[in-house]
Amino acid sequence: MRYTHRIIMALAAVGVLSGAPAAVAVETLNEKVQLQAAMQQYIDAQSIDGRFLALDQKSGEVRGLHLTTAHPEIMRMGNNFVLCFDFKDDQGKTANVDFYMARKDDSYVVFHTVLGDHVMLKGLMKDGKISRME
User: Fold this and answer.
1) Alpha-carbon gap, residue 82 to 35, rounded angstroms
2) Domain boundaries along the sequence of the chain
3) Dihedral over Cα of 13, 19, 20, 21: its sign
């Protein structure tokens, strides 16, 4: 926790140096840290035998996935968020998963998951309903 606080303060200083208001930089960074932490907790809680299970809508196959990378960019959709993660299955095949999240009290919940298909995400971005979080 102390390490996270130091990171937040260092990045806030960068925001000040770049001309961004410090309070906004800290608030946004804090929210990003909370979103990433909530996402990791969700993935851990939903995993079975170390694998996150996801339904491949195209094949109808249930895939057991291992988290490899969290994309650093977070999208905002009104009061909600979209986080993207890369996974690999047991055969080493890469799978991208988009998680749609909403705030619930002091945390966040996942309300929709999309495996390997950015069509909806790209469409919502094109329509201006989703934007990159600053």
Assistant:
1) 10
2) 2-132
3) positive
Tokens 């200083």 belong to residue: 13
pTM: 0.76
Contact yes or no for 69/40 (Cβ under 8 A): no
Q: What is the pLDDT of residues 59-117, one digit of tens each?
A: 898 999 999 998 888 999 999 999 999 999 999 999 999 999 999 988 899 999 999 88
Calculate ∠ Cα 35-78-108, nearest 5°.
Answer: 25
Backbone angles phi, psi at 17, to 5 degrees: -65, -30
Given a contact cutoff of 8 angstroms between Cβ atoms, the answer to whether 98 and 75 are in contact is no
Nearest in space to 25 (alpha carbons), one of 10, 36, 39 = 10
The conformational region for residue 56 under phi > 0 = left, psi -120 to 50 = alpha, else beta, is: beta
Residue labelled with tokens 């919940």: 109
What does the alpha-carbon distance between residue 67 and residue 77 come to, in Å, rounded to a whole number? 24
Structurally, at CATH architecture level, domain 2-132 sits in Roll (3.10)
Q: How far apart are CA 56 and CA 115, in angstroms?
A: 6
Which residues have CB under 8 Å from 74's CB, separation 6+? 32, 35, 36, 81, 82, 83, 132, 133
